[in-house]
Design goal:
The complex is a heterodimer.
Chain A: E1 4-7, E2 10-13, E3 19-25, E4 31-37, E5 44-49, E6 56-57, E7 64-68, E8 74-78, E9 87-94, E10 102-104, E11 108-112
Parallel strand pairs in A: 2-11
Antiparallel strand pairs in A: 1-3, 3-8, 4-5, 4-9, 5-6, 7-8, 9-10, 9-11
Chain B: E1 4-7, E2 10-14, E3 19-25, E4 30-38, E5 45-51, E6 56-59, E7 62-67, E8 72-77, E9 86-94, E10 100-102, E11 106-111
Parallel strand pairs in B: 2-11
Antiparallel strand pairs in B: 1-3, 3-8, 4-5, 4-9, 6-7, 7-8, 9-10, 9-11
The chains are: A mainly beta, B mainly beta.
Chain lengths: ~110, ~110
């Protein structure tokens, strides 16, 4: 039971570099989410995908792009990393109603120098 | 703006003792409230989900309460164990929207 798998677990970037965070779920969920978690703050939604082929902006989308490659995979791309993007990134998928529980990956810890 | 406030920010308790965490929210219209447990270096894991009509829900040694009138919830941990050391996050969902509002969490440290 892998659930939600995120790669990489850790990454250090220099300002201006680009990278893609990968996320895959094996629970056949339609909806997937990308969040960032910063000290002293609640998780904030970056982008979400209600189903394969659709994506929508969340609360803090600036500086990020996403791709819902297929039902299993939802990637997050930083085109030109900035120090303000230093954070822990979580991917989640949501079980359908009536459960509606979001299942989270283990996170990617990103530092931008 | 929908907000979720948690208190205390952190607490330390001795193994075997009880503790209660608080959550106040201004989210409207309310759909449900969830408590998640997040171990260090891991993603959050759901503990309980409570709808408008539910006052209390238990999951083992965890008991959540909800007062929808005052928009307050609490999470009570009974007979704490070392494995209860974690961050506990209160999450509220708005009706007809699958987006969630997250509190900043309460960090609980259980000491032997």
């Amino acid at each position: 039971n892998a659930g939600v798998t995120q790669t990489p677990k850790f990454q250090v970037l220099k300002t201006g570099q680009s990278m893609t965070l990968q996320c895959a779920q094996d629970m056949n969920h339609n909806s997937m989410y990308w969040y960032r978690q910063d000290p002293g703050m609640g998780l904030r939604l970056i982008y979400y995908s209600a189903s394969e082929g659709t994506t929508d902006k969340g609360e803090v989308p600036n500086g990020y792009n996403v791709s819902r490659l297929n039902k299993r995979e939802f990637s997050l791309r930083l085109e030109s990393a900035a120090p303000s993007q230093t954070s822990v990134y979580f991917c989640a998928s949501r079980a359908p109603p009536p459960l509606n529980i979001q299942y989270f990956g283990a996170g990617t810890r990103l530092s931008v120098l | 703006k929908n907000q979720v406030e948690q208190s205390p920010q952190s607490l330390i308790i001795l193994e075997g003792k009880n503790c209660t965490l608080q959550c106040n929210y201004t989210v409207s219209p309310f759909s449900n409230l969830r408590w998640y447990k997040q171990d260090t270096g891991r993603g959050p894991v759901s503990l309980t989900i409570m709808t408008f009509s539910e006052n209390t829900k238990s999951n083992g040694r965890y008991t959540a309460t909800l007062d929808a009138d005052t928009k307050q919830s609490s999470l009570h941990i009974t007979a704490s164990q070392l494995s209860d050391s974690a961050s506990y996050i209160c999450v509220v969902r708005v009706s007809n929207d699958y987006k969630l509002s997250f509190g900043a969490g309460t960090t609980v440290t259980v000491r032997a």
